[in-house]
Every structure is written in C-alpha cells, then in structure tokens.
Design goal:
Blueprint lengths: L1 H5 L3 H13 L6 H10 L3 H13 L1 H5 L9 H9 L7 H14 L1 H12 L9 H10 L7 H13 L15 E7 L4 E6 L4 E7 L2 H6 L1 E7 L2 E6 L4 E5 L8 E3 L7 E6 L2 E6 L7 E5 L4 E4 L11 E5 L2 E5 L12 E5 L4 E4 L12 E4 L3 E5 L13 E5 L5 E4 L10 E5 L2 E5 L7 E6 L4 E7 L11 E4 L1
Antiparallel strand pairs: 1-2, 1-24, 2-3, 4-5, 5-6, 6-7, 8-9, 9-10, 10-11, 12-13, 13-14, 14-15, 16-17, 17-18, 18-19, 20-21, 21-22, 22-23
C-alpha cells in the first residue's frame, strides 16, 4: 500500500483496499485501521468505522483497544449505532481511561454524561456510584447518574417539601366520569381529572397510589397510570396485568397484585422502571376475596374464602427480600372474607366482610400490632360492610361504601377508639374497591 500510494497506482491501491476490507476481522482490524489512516483511504476508514460499531465487544477486548486515540473512542461511545449495551460501553471506556488516566480522565468525564444512563442496569449504576472514584471528580456526572437511578423508579418529578401539604381521600365516579377528592377536615369535595374513556369501557376495578401516581386496574386486566398532582396530566396505559379482577397495594416502589374474585394462589409485581409485571412465588393457599395490605416491609394476604365457600381467619405474609411466603403465627379472631384492610405505622386494620358461612355482613374490626404481632378486636363500625374501600389519613382510618348501602364515610380515631360517620356522599356512584388517599 505504501509503494502504490507513493507511485499513485490508484487501481492497485483500490485492489489492496478491497482485499483488506474482505480480510477485516477483530484480529486484523487495528492494523487495517492504521493503514487506512496513514494513507488516507476514506473508503477503508469508513469500512473500519462500521466494523467497529458492529463488532464493538470483540475489538474492545483486545489490548490494542487501549491504544486507540480519543477521537475514535469518542466516535464509538457517542454513536447510536454502536452494537453494545450502555453498561458495556461504559465499562470499556473506564478501562481505556485507566490505561492513561492523567491524559484521558477529562475525556471520560465528558463522555460518561452522554450515555443513556437509564438504559444501564440499576445494579451497574450502583456499582459505579460505589466503586468508581473517577466519577467523584465530576459533580455533574454524579448528579446525572443519581437522577437516572431515581428516574428508573417511575420518572419521579422534582418536588420540594410542602409544609402545607395534606392528604385527601379520592373516589372514582363513573357517573360523572371524574375522580373526586374529599378533605376530611373541612368536609369539602373537589373535582379532579376525568376518568379516561378506555378505563370506563374496560370497567375500573381497583386503584393504588405509588409516589405521585395513581394506578388503576380494570376487570379486563388493563392497567393505567396518572400523575395526579398535574392538573393537565393524561392517563397512560401501561403493560397489562395477568390478573383477573385484581386488587393491589404499593410497597417500596413496586405494585403487588392478586386475583380477588378467583380461587388463586398467584401474586404478581409491577416494576415501573421497565413497565413490566412479573409473577412471584405462589402463595400456599388458593383463596378468593382476600384482603391485601402492605405493612412492615411485607405484603399481607388476610383471610378470604376457601373452595368450600367458607371464610377463613388465616394470614399469609410475603417477604420481598427473600421472595418467600409464610403463615402468620397468629390468626384473626374472626373468620371473614370480602373485608377491607389498611395499615398505619402502628399496625394493620381489618374491617367488615362476610362471616364464616357468608350469611351475615360484619361490623367487626381487628387490629394487628406491629410490635406484638397479635390480633385484637376493636370497637365495631357503625355500618356492616363488605367489598368496600379503606385508607389512612393522618393516622385515622376511613372506610367508604360497600354492601349496597349509601356511600357514607366512617372515621376511626385510634386516640379515642371511636368510629363516627363523617359524610354521606350524594349524587356519586363510587367504585367500591378504588378508594385511595393522596397527598395534595
């Protein structure tokens, strides 16, 4: 190539170029690239560039990769055509930088901020934060990496602490096709966002709040989310659940769901970072009409009806850390199904439902202390209820609707140990299993 280039034998030069292109592989790449650069063979340079993009992982594992110049490394890292995962590119960029860290560290810090960080696995991003001291030299790189980790948990919007923020009770009314929030202190109702037509058509079944989003599940397994604090926000359809008539709870950035109206031992978990439902370890018991609640870092499936159509008093507990189920050593005092459950920091409340043979609707209430792990009976509700909603606002428990009774709201105050009816809803058709509490 040197002789033909010096003597300007273009046809021979072209023939050599074709030979080098045909012979290009991970072993010959680096020498071929040097020849292309030295003799300004544009066609061969382009061929080498495309080869490097397509076979990045193979050439990156060669010792000669560490000798590539900054311009070519930048090209490989910034190109959207590079066939390698973002974490692989980042790992090789780190290796290349450490080969001559004094000369290359500035290049690394400028390039690492151009990666699509949210496409890296969370475990690798945590590894970078914990182990790569190079990142500590750039506040901006650390900031972007940290934000990417937060964004992987549902694109959490930035929001300062609001000292006047308060919780309100939210209901879904298909009649007005709106959500409505209720201030339990001043007894006022405020219309919120409309309910998407697709949700109405697919029949809203249950709802859960996680971070600044409300998630709803319909009877046909479709799943939607809404950033409720944004008045102009629109409902977004997420990945469908694999659960029929599901009820759900939120725990540590995940949504957990079970099939409510089906004898089932299935539970699934929704991860907003990848918009995916995953089936978890099966429960021990095939039940329906269980009460689902999150407390003490675990998910509790409480009571329910067995396949003999009898209410039970058993409690199963799922531990997300070990992905295992266990039976609560202490069962409920009273068997029940179609009850409602909610939790405070002090413990779990289970209210109402049908009795053991399904002939009577219950007013009874039980409480499981987070300290003693035992169930105790509390003062009963004013109204017997089944298949109804409950939530906690400022440590007080609120229940709404159920059993075909008017949609009144009862409040339980742990300080006084008393129940009282605080509101009777007029002109609204409340979805019974979809009452939630939000912060506004």
């Amino acid at each position: 190539m040197g002789v033909t280039h010096m003597m300007q034998l273009q046809r021979l030069c072209d023939s050599i170029t074709i030979f080098l292109e045909d012979d290009l592989d991970p072993r010959s790449f680096f020498q071929t690239k040097k020849i292309a650069n030295r003799y300004n063979c544009k066609q061969l340079e382009e061929k080498c560039n495309q080869f490097a993009l397509q076979r990045f992982k193979e050439i990156a594992q060669s010792d000669e990769f560490m000798k590539l110049d900054e311009k070519f490394i930048s090209f490989l890292m910034e190109s959207k055509e590079t066939k390698a995962k973002e974490e692989v590119k980042c790992r090789m960029l780190l290796a290349w930088t450490k080969h001559d860290i004094d000369e290359r560290k500035e290049c690394f810090l400028s390039l690492v901020m151009k990666f699509q960080l949210t496409k890296m696995t969370l475990s690798y991003r945590r590894f970078l934060v914990e182990n790569e001291t190079l990142l500590y030299k750039s506040f901006e790189a650390l900031r972007l990496l940290t934000l990417s980790i937060l964004d992987s948990h549902g694109d959490i919007s930035s929001k300062d602490v609001n000292l006047t923020e308060k919780k309100q009770l939210v209901v879904f009314d298909p009649t007005s096709e709106r959500m409505h929030s209720h201030d339990v202190d001043d007894k006022t109702w405020t219309p919120m966002q409309t309910i998407d037509q697709a949700i109405i058509q697919n029949t809203l079944y249950s709802a859960v709040v996680m971070e600044s989003y409300i998630y709803v599940i319909c009877t046909n397994k479709s799943f939607y989310s809404l950033e409720y604090a944004e008045s102009n926000a629109k409902w977004e359809q997420m990945a469908n659940a694999n659960l029929q008539n599901a009820c759900a709870v939120a725990l540590d950035g995940f949504v957990y769901g079970i099939e409510y109206e089906k004898y089932s031992n299935i539970m699934e978990r929704y991860d907003s970072s990848n918009n995916r439902w995953t089936r978890l370890t099966n429960k021990s018991l095939d039940m329906d009409h269980e009460s689902l609640v999150a407390a003490d870092g675990k998910v509790f499936c409480i009571a329910g009806s067995n396949q003999l159509y009898r209410a039970t008093n058993q409690v199963e507990i799922y531990d997300p850390v070990t992905s295992t189920w266990s039976m609560d050593d202490r069962s409920l005092n009273e068997a029940r199904y179609s009850a409602s459950a909610t939790a405070t920091e002090e413990g779990i409340y289970v209210m109402g439902g049908y009795n053991v043979d399904g002939r009577s609707t219950l007013t009874t209430v039980e409480f499981r202390s987070s300290v003693t792990k035992t169930w105790m009976m509390l003062k009963p509700m004013n109204n017997a209820r089944e298949e109804f909603g409950s939530c906690v606002i400022d440590k007080k428990v609120y229940v709404i609707g159920g059993n075909g009774i008017p949609a009144n709201i009862e409040e339980y105050d742990p300080a006084t140990k008393e129940w009282k009816i605080i509101e009777t809803i007029q002109g609204k058709n409340i979805v019974p299993m979809a009452t939630v509490a939000i912060s506004i």
